[in-house]
Design goal:
Radius of gyration: 23 Å
Largest sheet: 6 strands, antiparallel
Structural class: alpha+beta
Number of helices: 8
Order of helices and strands: EEEEEEEEEHEEHEEHHHEHHHEE
Number of strands: 16
Shape: globular
Number of domains: 2
Strand content: 25-35%
């Protein structure tokens, strides 16, 4: 079977940057990636202008948070590349592991080989040579180990102590990278002592030091949520129209009020105004990879709303934009965008 396990025990022993901080993974995939030619020489074997061959990585797209309490940082998501495997030194190609794709997302089936060409991507890994194991010394598996094991980092002597507990190994064994979407954690790059003679310096590794929300727990809660629960956040009549979305509100007097007429802001109504009046206008004619991307786009547009949204209302708005059932319903009602069968969000 051409399946590959990412459980840290199933290994043999042998980036881009993301500043330390809280974040939530909104997209994860395997990818054949190649760095551009070097601008400066990096030793006699790597002169300026030279370029390393493509390698296999896991690309994580991380939405940054200001803290572990759900406060969105209001900056664009960032990507982090974690090496899975390097090309064969003799052939210069990826001969052992490739990006793979589970047919229709069925993790119980065998993955389909996506090949080793530059730009090939998938939702899992494919073992082109059966019986081979991932290296525990490369970026992806070091990151995976920090998920399954709790981490204590000692900066005084650059050591990491791992203790049992954390992310379920059974989830990682299938190497289905969408399983990571929704992971809310503190991400950190640390320098640890080199463990092999061939290493010329202490390596830097990208790890998780604290997990605030496990993605599979959130997904389990979502599947248990009754359909009626999503209806509670249905848009107000102002948003239930097929007409061209209104421009952003420009006066406090026109800010949406709650159904009781108290003058307090109705969060679902305000969120609908931002989504239909700003986000949908900016994304017109575009296709986003999924509702997570739409959520991020809407969150970023909070800062474009006039008058400025008070900080006290932003956590509730963030929660509203994270509600995928509500996002999908807004699209169905307004017909400004549709969610295709493959999960992509297509704007009219």
């Amino acid at each position: 079977m051409p399946r590959v396990s990412s459980d840290p025990k199933d290994t043999y022993h042998f980036s881009t940057s993301f500043s330390d901080g809280w974040g939530k993974i909104i997209e994860a995939k395997s990818l054949v990636f190649q760095y551009p030619p070097r601008k400066e020489a990096q030793g006699p074997d790597r002169p300026a202008g030279s370029q390393d061959p493509p390698m296999l990585v896991v690309e994580l797209t991380i939405d940054r948070y200001a803290d572990g309490q759900g406060t969105h940082a209001g900056v664009p998501p960032e990507s982090k590349l974690l090496v899975v495997d390097y090309p064969d030194k003799a052939t210069g190609t990826l001969d052992i592991f490739h990006p793979g794709k589970y047919p229709d997302g069925d993790v119980n089936a065998d993955p389909i080989d996506q090949g080793n060409a530059l730009g090939a991507e998938g939702d899992t890994l494919y073992a082109a040579v059966e019986g081979k194991l991932l290296s525990d010394g490369l970026g992806w598996m070091i990151f995976a180990k920090s998920l399954t094991d709790r981490v204590k980092y000692d900066a005084t002597d650059n050591t990491v102590v791992w203790t049992a507990g954390g992310f379920k190994p059974a989830v990682l064994q299938r190497s289905y990278f969408p399983d990571l979407v929704g992971l809310y954690a503190f991400f950190k790059t640390v320098t640890i002592k080199k463990t092999r003679d061939k290493q010329t310096k202490d390596p830097s590794v990208f790890i998780v030091t604290e997990i605030k929300e496990f993605p599979y727990e959130k997904k389990a809660q979502d599947t248990k949520k009754p359909a009626a629960a999503a209806k509670k956040t249905a848009p107000t009549p102002a948003a239930q129209t097929n007409a061209t979305p209104p421009p952003p509100t420009t006066s406090p007097a026109t800010a949406p009020a709650d159904s009781n007429g108290t003058g307090e802001v109705d969060i679902p109504s305000l969120a609908a105004e931002i989504l239909t009046g700003i986000t949908a206008v900016k994304q017109k004619g575009k296709t986003l990879s999924g509702l997570d991307k739409l959520s991020v786009a809407a969150l970023l547009d909070i800062s474009n709303y006039k008058p400025p949204v008070p900080n006290a209302q932003k956590p509730a708005l963030t929660a509203q934009f994270k509600d995928k059932a509500w996002l999908k319903e807004i699209g169905e009602i307004t017909e400004l965008y549709t969610v295709a069968e493959d999960g992509k969000v297509v704007f009219a």
